[in-house]
TrEMBL record:
Pfam families: adh_short. The keyword GTP-binding does not apply. CDD domains: SDR_c. Belongs to the short-chain dehydrogenases/reductases (SDR) family. GO terms for molecular function: oxidoreductase activity, acting on the CH-OH group of donors, NAD or NADP as acceptor. PANTHER family: PKSB, RETINOL DEHYDROGENASE 10. Keywords: Oxidoreductase. InterPro entries: NAD(P)-bd_dom_sf, SDR_fam. This is Short-chain dehydrogenase/reductase SDR.
């Protein structure tokens, strides 16, 4: 996709962090923008900021871990703008802790947020894009944690590896059909976002049970502190929009914005071919 003016971008997780930056860049390129988030307060702030820029904008408060909500987003988008050209499946969360300690609800929460929401976005919007027959693009936000593994975050790595594989396999199918839809998977390292505060926006069915011992455990507390530290010391978020849109223009499938990890990714592949277990000394800092 080379031209963006007057086209329609749908962005999930648009109220904060990466999603907000993608919304700003969409507006700068004179797109019509659909903002989707469970965080209504910050969503309305972004909506107002985009409106002040002269952008045609639609904000939808929705929990994209529920398919019926994603269907509603699709319907409201088409009712308002009549088309969708660019889809950012960006909503996501982070949890940490050992597999043997984490409550099953944590697994349900991260799977629904980081995997199911991406599936639902593609299921709802790909048929619309196919019917349009115009140049369209889908960007699924994964992470460099979907290309590398580190200690302490098995659930997060699981979800992001799944996101990468899901995007690759879906792209294979679209390419085999000579589809009008191009795809990218965005795999950044740490960025200064609000991701470590995602618990503030949990859907009620995944709410933390204060009587569950795990949430008073050392593992839980250390995991939250590690997440806070690595996110707050990441790169500024204001570089995200331009980097991602440049990759879309260049039709790059893998969007890697942290070159310091490229050699680590290369070593992982080499070790894999040689049957060597992942090297914990190479984990992402």
């Amino acid at each position: 996709m080379k031209e963006f003016k007057n086209k329609v971008a749908v962005i999930t997780g648009a109220a904060n962090g990466i999603g907000k930056e993608l919304a700003y860049e969409s507006a700068r390129r004179e797109m019509k923008v659909v903002l989707v988030d469970i965080d209504e307060t910050n969503l309305k702030k972004v909506e107002q900021e985009l409106s002040d820029m002269g952008t045609q904008v639609l904000s939808i408060t929705a929990d994209v871990t529920l398919y019926e909500n994603v269907e509603r987003v699709k319907d409201e988008t088409l009712n308002k703008f009549g088309q969708v050209d660019l889809l950012f499946n960006n909503a996501g969360v982070v949890v940490s802790g050992p597999v043997w300690e984490m409550p099953t609800k944590e697994w349900d929460y991260i799977t629904a947020s980081n995997i199911h929401s991406v599936i639902y976005g593609m299921k709802a919007f790909i048929p619309v894009m196919m019917e349009q027959g115009t140049d369209c693009h889908i960007v699924n936000t994964a992470s460099v944690a979907g290309l590398l593994s580190t200690p302490g975050m098995p659930a997060y790595h699981m979800s992001k590896f799944a996101n990468v594989g899901l995007t690759e396999a879906t792209n294979h199918q679209l390419r085999a059909m000579n589809s009008n839809i191009k795809m990218s998977v965005y795999c950044p390292g740490f960025i200064q976002t609000d991701l470590h505060n995602c618990d503030d926006r949990r859907p009620q069915r995944f709410a933390i049970d204060p009587d569950e011992p795990y949430y008073q455990s050392t593992s839980y507390m250390l995991g939250r502190e590690k997440a806070r530290y690595v996110i707050e010391t990441g790169i500024p978020s204001d570089s995200v929009g331009l980097a991602v849109f440049t990759a879309i223009e260049e039709e790059r499938f893998y969007i890697l914005t942290h070159p310091q990890y490229n050699s680590v990714i290369g070593k992982r592949i080499k070790d894999m071919l040689e049957g060597i277990e992942p090297d914990p000394s190479m984990f992402i800092r």
